[in-house]
Amino acid sequence: MTNKFMRAISIRGGKGSADALFINNIPMPELEESQALVRIKAFGLNRMDLLQREGKYPLPPQAPSTMGVEFSGEIEELGQNPENGFEVGDEVFGLAYGGAYAEYIAVSTHMLIHKPKELSWEAAAGIPEAWITATQALYLIGGYKPGNSVLWHAGASSVSIAGIQLAKSDGASSVHVTVGSQDKIDFCVCELGVTAAYNYKTQNWASEIARATQGGGVDVIVDFVGATHFQGNLNIAAQDARIVQLGQMGGSVLPAGVDISGLLRKRVRLEGSTLRSRDVSYQKKLRDLLVEHALPKFKDGTFTVFIEKVLPFEQIAEAHQLLESNCTKGKVICSFLENRP
């Protein structure tokens, strides 16, 4: 490459509020053997980015300091030993350990997916983190089988939006969600077609789900909230249920009086997981699952990438503030497609 530097988003002082984000000139990444250099067209925002910006997200050792784990773009250069099937000029999208808030990214070809012509750059950039996390939670950890019932907490989050579509398309007997506003209830019921949605701020969601399932409970529960939902999850877990813990937005210390007897009585399996800290071979397995099960349904329109808003790269602070508002229903995307030299 003739340019040895590129524009990227950095944080003044290493951590801070959204206002601390700024456009910086940093060295271009150097390619390793199995990597591709991708010129980024768009990238997606995730809650881990907010935590990383605040200095609250421990980075895996292979992650660069630049934020961003999902993107779409065009391959400009390949390392000496890329995965078969990728060529310079290919339109791709993919998952990375970091570095997507930039004009270029060096990323393993094992984590790239060819972009179908039916998907826009912005839609493709909003797929990798949410849909791969949802695939991991539902199938690899949650052990989902057709006919199971599913509960997605944070039902209007991008991961849950993906997971709801996966579960519905794969024969779930019922899909329940919890959310924090009537607007999000309407979205989940009317747009996503969930069986029922509950406002955790105004309803006793566990009692409502127990009533709706006639006491039978839910087979697979995916939770991003943590401590405040822990007891409710156990209360509405079905016999041999699986609870997948992906976050702790509601705290990590359990309140006094939590009764864990349901773990034994119902033979509940509770497993926590992350994605970013996994090795490339694990992430490649998830990528392949996504390509096999979901990519055809993006092409034919069965699956939809819900986008809250697309902002230009230069408005990264506003993008972070929008995600922080907790009012989004779908992805916040930043794009290089406008005003790019």
From TrEMBL:
Keyword GTP-binding listed: no
Gene3D superfamilies with a match to the protein in the record: Medium-chain alcohol dehydrogenases, catalytic domain (3.90.180.10), NAD(P)-binding Rossmann-like Domain (3.40.50.720)
Pfam families annotated for this entry?
A: ADH_N, ADH_zinc_N
Q: Which keywords does this Swiss-Prot/TrEMBL entry list?
A: NADP, Oxidoreductase
Enoyl reductase (ER) domain ranges (all copies): 16-334
Q: Does the keyword Glycoprotein apply?
A: no
Q: Name one GO molecular function term.
A: NADPH binding
Q: Which InterPro entries match?
A: ADH-like_C, ADH-like_N, ER, GroES-like_sf, NAD(P)-bd_dom_sf, Quinone_OxRdtase_PIG3
What is this protein identified as? Enoyl reductase (ER) domain-containing protein
Source organism phylogeny:
Eukaryota, Fungi, Dikarya, Ascomycota, Pezizomycotina
